[in-house]
Amino acid sequence: MARRMTIEGIEVVGVYEIMKTPNGLIRNIEQCLNDYNIPLHLSTTVVKIHGDKRIEGVTIANVDGQNKPIKESEQFLECDLLVLSVGLIPENELTRNTQILISPITNGPIVDENMMTDKPGIFAAGNVVAVFDLVDYVAATGEIAGRCAAIFIKNELTRIPSRKVSVNAGNNVSFVLPQKINTDATGTLDLFLRVQTEMKDAAVMIIVNGAPAKRLKKERVILPSAMVCVTLNREHALDKDVTIEVRGVNNET
Question: The FAD/NAD(P)-binding domain covers which part of the protein (predicted)?
Answer without folding.
Answer: 24-135
